Structure formats: structure tokens, C-alpha cells
Amino acid sequence: QVPLVESGGGLVQTGASLRLSCVYSTRTTSVNAMGWFRQTPEKEREFVAAITWSDSVTYYGDSVKGRFTVSRDSAKSTMYLQMNTLKPEDTGVYYCAASKIPTHYWTSASVRDYTYWGQGTQVTVSS
């Protein structure tokens, strides 16, 4: 069973909003934190946002601060990414990831600190 499944991507115009969702399987995964990353063919995987599962502390990449909001619903085992005022440079495949590392050892923006990854969902912002 796939531990993480993303949804909510799509094609939108500049200035629009989208909300991504990531559901994790509690039968195969227990997590301490989850994050969102994005990637294009031209760039390495880029940190977008993350949230700790116990106390909802949030972290953001500089390029999305003030426009994106990460949240989680423990009862639904789901993490969300609300993306507002989208720009063409936000285009990419968005991946959710889950970390089992205790949060005092975890670095939100480090790809290596995440154990599970979703399959990705495409977000395209047209100008």
C-alpha cells in the first residue's frame, strides 16, 4: 500500500489558487512531520513547506512565504497546501513527503530527512 497519495494539482492562470491534499496511510506509516517539495526538469527538488504533526509548527521556503499555507487534519491523516496568488514560477510537480525522524533532529528543508514520498501532482500556472 502506498503510504502517501497527493491530489489537487491542475492548470490555472496567474493569480489563481489551488489546494493540494496528501493522505497518508496510518496502517503503514507513523509520522512526526510532513512536507511539500516541488520539482521541474531544470531544477533540483525544492522545499516548499512543512508541518510538525504533534504541534503543527510550520515552515516555508522563501519563495512561497505569505502566499502558501500548510496545514494538517490528524483525524483525516491529511496534510494540505493552500496556494494563493500563484505565479508561473510555481509550476512544477509537487510531492508530499513524510518524516519519521524526531522533530528535534529533523530539518524541514532536507530531502534526506524524509522517509516516504508520494507520486507527485502536477501544478501548472500559465501567464
Unreliable spans are: none
H and E string: EEEEEEEEEEE
Total E-strand runs: 11
How would you sum up the global shape?
globular
Strand content: over 45%
Mean pLDDT: 93
Largest sheet properties = 7 strands, mixed
Structural class: mainly beta
Question: What oligomeric assembly is this protein in?
Answer: single chain
Question: Helix amount, in percent?
Answer: under 10%
Number of DSSP helical runs: 0
Intertermini distance: 38 Å
- What gyration radius follows from the Cα positions, in whole Å? 14 Å
In short:
With 127 residues, the protein is mainly β. It contains no helices and eleven strands.
Task: Note down, in words, how this protein is organized.
The protein has 127 residues and is an all-beta fold. It has strands at residues 4-7, 10-13, 18-24, 33-39, 46-52, 58-60, 68-73, 78-83, 92-99, 116-117, 121-126. Strand 4 and strand 5 (46-52) form a beta hairpin.
Write the layout of secondary structure elements.
Elements: E1 4-7, E2 10-13, E3 18-24, E4 33-39, E5 46-52, E6 58-60, E7 68-73, E8 78-83, E9 92-99, E10 116-117, E11 121-126
Parallel strand pairs: 2-11
Antiparallel strand pairs: 1-3, 3-8, 4-5, 4-9, 5-6, 7-8, 9-10, 9-11
